[in-house]
Give the backbone structure.
Amino acid sequence: MFAFPWAFLLLLPWAVACWRVWRSARAKGVVFASASTRFTSLKPSWRQRLCAFLPAVFLIGALCLIIGAAGPRSLLSREVRSADALAVMMTVDVSGSMRALDLSEGRHDVTRLDVVKRIFREFVEQRPEDLIGLVSFGGYASVRAPLTADHRALLHTLSGVTIPGEHGEVDNRGRRVTSDELQTAIGDGLAVSLLRLKDAAPKTKVVILLSDGESNAGAVTPMEAAKAAADLGVRVYTIGVGTTGLTKVRARDMWGKEVLADVHMTLDEETLKTIAETTGGEYANVREPEQLAAFLNHISELETTRVERQIYARYASHTQIWLLIGGGCCLLATALLMAWIRRPV
């Protein structure tokens, strides 16, 4: 096997060089044959015979260098490692109410969603062995990332999760935002997460459902989704962000200037509590970033499932020997040609 197989693209110019050397040698052979009919006693010297083979030696050396550049290696051992793992679907509300600034600790440029993304990032970094996925929901649910152990890709996806603009605005993809996207479909978000968890390998399956409003959209009711989770043995940990009442939100006045406005928010804690109780999970109301971090740490202490993973980590590299052979052949061929006939290959 090779560490850098794309290096074999160098075989294309190498093949062109082989063709040119072959054409040159053939032309010289024809000239020599024509001359030998008139001078039958004339025979090539050993030096001339050797010079005829030196271009081939150079090409063989170049081929060895290409193989060395591809990083030839052989597998020494296969490691099987056991790990404690959960299957976790993070299900995040991205409705318009997530623009509220009550978790921003006095800053006017940090929304609820910004804080949630930061703390979820820390949670993912603390669970390197878990299979974690991401679902976002407003008026409808969307799978942002399936269950994966590639947390770097997951965090990249998480960083791109945003809140749709106001109804009629154009979002960052040039698409006009509809009123449906500003609603909250808790049941749909949970149902989509359950579909992704159904066939997961770890026995311990968890949904972390975070919302800051009340369910007012979707094809699946929160209670229907909770019963489905209970039937599948999936525990749902629900998080209610903020509380019911007036909250500061960045908005635009009639002249388009950005201002801070007091907006009445409604948090349906009863629905979130019922979902958690039905599935054997827990509910937490979060009004400060530290409370959210503490609750996620509590989830990290759940019983986990031991999963075996095969890791191919130990290789023996053969790059040096190929580079030494190739470099030696090229250097020898070039030196002899320059010394005897005063020209390179």
